[in-house]
Design goal:
Structural class: alpha/beta
Radius of gyration: 16 Å
Strand order of the largest sheet: 3-2-1-4-5-6
Distance between the termini: 42 Å
Helix content: 25-40%
Number of strands: 8
Number of helices: 7
Length: about 180
């Protein structure tokens, strides 16, 4: 819906269960992909997934280097977080698209959007036709989620890893006894 294509600059906010797939998909579409993460330790794995750049979002100097750089930012980060620093990363007509389970209120200056015709949008799961199209694209480009199979007794550990921003893949719970 946001026209991601070869040569565009796409940033994926969050390198976790959803974000790692965003990196892989945008890379396969030919975009220059940057991973934005709070956790610098995810740099190597983000590059393995296809990111050209890894930007530590807590580092104001790194963030400033990418001001007005991105055509599209896809926010996959769970939980409450401030989107204001990301708005400055969008170039003219850039879009910040929220696809993760973001639970936050927004507080930003409207002129930060208006001056550069920037947009904030959201997207959830697509239609059946869109899902089929995405799955076919994944098969064609050999894109699969990176998973770790865990037992129910490990759910708390997985949750703690996610909350500590240490997750860089998707957990799958095996309920078989």
């Amino acid at each position: 819906h946001w026209g991601v294509a070869a040569g565009m600059r796409v940033g994926i906010i969050g390198v976790g269960g959803l974000g790692h797939m965003g990196i892989k998909l945008a890379h396969a579409m030919g975009a220059e992909v940057s991973a934005l993460t709070r956790n610098a330790s995810k740099a190597d794995v983000a590059k393995e997934y296809g990111a050209t750049h890894v930007i530590v979002s807590k580092d104001e100097v790194q963030m400033a280097k990418f001001a007005q750089y991105f055509d599209v930012l896809i926010d996959t980060a769970p939980g409450a977080h401030d989107i204001t620093p990301y708005i400055d990363l969008l170039k003219l007509d850039g879009s910040l698209v929220m696809v993760g389970p973001i639970q936050t209120t927004f507080s930003f200056v409207a002129s930060d959007l208006m001056a550069k015709r920037r947009s904030i949008a959201g997207s959830s799961i697509g239609s059946i036709a869109e899902t089929i199209e995405m799955l076919a694209f994944c098969v064609k480009h050999d894109i699969y989620p990176t998973i770790e199979v865990i037992k129910p007794a490990q759910i708390q550990d997985a949750w703690d890893a996610m909350m500590a921003s240490k997750m860089d893949h998707r957990y799958v719970i095996d309920f078989r006894v």
